[in-house]
């Protein structure tokens, strides 16, 4: 039976916005615990572990120096990269054909392949320092970036419906003020980005230039966040592992139901973007889709503030490439200020290493298939910032939400 909720009977969206409010979070937690003091005594979802161990379950204080995650390229390796660039350009092939075979790195390749394993079975991130970006054209940087990254992730994901496989992460609110879309995503503003994950397995970011101030990149271990919440509020683990209504902001269908948390093949996987649940900027949350619950609002803020507690700040320098396991780690960015002389500008790749990849949870598989579906001849490498074109191709309607164990 289909039940349509009228505006007067529909559940109201909790008082929660994209930018987290710690006072509201603590008040909501206190209120819910007062209403039901047994919440912290509830069991974890069936099969979920009490604690995750291993190198990916780290916290920021475990790192004492950036040398623990920064890999500095030698002059010989930089020359090898330059030689590979010349080799690829000599092939006169479209950029979508950049691969391990067409961008040969005889001695650097084994290093990169080992670092790829670190993403999936180690701490989940590293920084490659540093590409001399001022020595190359924008197209040459794209070739070098994709070429190096092909040894880390064998598949490149498309970032919009046009087949673009790179995206420029910078403030475009002025330069593209006449276009719609970018003000609905903090990536293209100077605002703070709260903790979240991107779609796909791996994220790469190369820094072309830094801001005048702010913009610090922050990472947090998903398993460490899980361990804290599982130990203190196991009821919220259950909430995170149940389906949530994710807004598509005008897509087809208007919303989908997916969990934010998965226990899949011995891995804790977190996959969520806060703005799909709260709205952001010019995209308010759609009024005619299911609201999130008070329990979900508390869980969403608990993710954020627990991630802040255990996070690590990275010193992102010009020419650095940062690689992140996006299903194992959460990432965020501080607000920043640009100036005419210093403008923060990153370029993003979404990658997957088909040899090392974790098993993708079933609810995420349709998005993953669409993400990695673009062939070499259809990959586009925009060399300047642009507003991403949304993919509104219909997918099957969302199933009705069900409890985790039903």
From TrEMBL:
Composition-biased stretches, type Basic and acidic residues, lie in 381-392
* SUPFAM superfamilies xref list: Clavaminate synthase-like (SSF51197)
Q: Enumerate the spans annotated as TauD/TfdA-like domain.
A: 93-350
Q: Where is the composition biased (Polar residues)?
A: 1-16
Which ranges does the record mark as transmembrane?
Answer: none
Coiled-coil stretches noted in the UniProt entry, renumbered to this chain? none
Give start-end positions of Pro residues composition bias. 394-406
What GO terms are given for molecular function?
Answer: oxidoreductase activity
- Oxidoreductase is among the record's keywords: yes
Stretch list, region Disordered: 1-22, 381-406
Sorted alphabetically, the keyword list is: Oxidoreductase
| Cited PANTHER family | FAMILY OXIDOREDUCTASE, PUTATIVE (AFU_ORTHOLOGUE AFUA_4G13850)-RELATED, GAMMA-BUTYROBETAINE HYDROXYLASE-RELATED
| Full protein name | Clavaminate synthase-like protein
Tell me the lineage of the source organism.
Eukaryota, Fungi, Dikarya, Basidiomycota, Agaricomycotina
């Amino acid at each position: 039976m289909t039940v349509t909720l009228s505006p007067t009977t529909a559940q109201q969206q909790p008082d929660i916005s994209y930018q987290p409010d710690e006072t509201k979070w603590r008040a909501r937690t206190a209120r819910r615990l007062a209403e039901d003091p047994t919440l912290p005594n509830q069991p974890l979802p069936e099969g979920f572990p009490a604690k995750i161990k291993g190198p990916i379950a780290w916290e920021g204080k475990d790192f004492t120096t950036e040398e623990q995650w920064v890999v500095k390229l030698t002059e010989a390796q930089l020359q090898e990269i330059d030689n590979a660039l010349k080799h690829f350009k000599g092939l006169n092939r479209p950029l979508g054909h950049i691969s391990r075979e067409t961008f040969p790195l005889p001695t650097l390749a084994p290093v990169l392949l080992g670092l790829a394993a670190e993403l999936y079975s180690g701490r989940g991130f590293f920084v490659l320092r540093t590409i001399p970006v001022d020595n190359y054209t924008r197209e040459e940087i794209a070739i070098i970036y994709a070429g190096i990254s092909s040894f880390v992730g064998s598949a490149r994901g498309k970032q919009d419906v046009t087949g673009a496989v790179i995206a420029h992460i910078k403030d475009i609110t002025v330069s593209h003020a006449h276009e719609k879309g970018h003000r609905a995503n903090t990536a293209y503003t100077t605002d703070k980005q709260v903790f979240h994950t991107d779609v796909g397995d791996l994220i790469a970011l190369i820094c072309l230039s830094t801001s005048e101030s702010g913009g610090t990149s922050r990472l947090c271990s998903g398993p460490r966040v899980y361990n804290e919440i599982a130990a203190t509020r196991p009821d919220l683990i259950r909430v995170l592992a149940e389906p949530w209504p994710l807004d598509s902001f005008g897509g087809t269908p208007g919303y989908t139901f997916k969990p934010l948390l998965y226990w899949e093949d011995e891995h804790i996987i977190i996959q969520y973007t806060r703005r799909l649940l709260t709205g952001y900027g010019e995209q308010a949350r759609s009024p005619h889709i299911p609201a999130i619950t008070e329990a979900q609002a508390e869980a969403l803020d608990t993710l954020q503030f627990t991630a802040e507690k255990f996070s690590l700040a990275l010193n992102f320098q010009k020419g650095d490439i940062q690689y992140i396991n996006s299903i194992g780690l959460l990432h965020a960015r501080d607000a920043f200020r640009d100036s005419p002389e210093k403008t923060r500008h990153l370029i993003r790749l979404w990658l997957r290493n088909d040899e090392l990849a974790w098993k993708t949870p079933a609810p995420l598989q349709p998005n993953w298939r669409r993400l990695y579906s673009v062939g070499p001849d259809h990959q586009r490498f925009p060399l300047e910032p642009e507003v991403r074109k949304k993919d509104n191709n219909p997918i099957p309607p969302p199933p009705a939400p069900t409890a985790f164990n039903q």
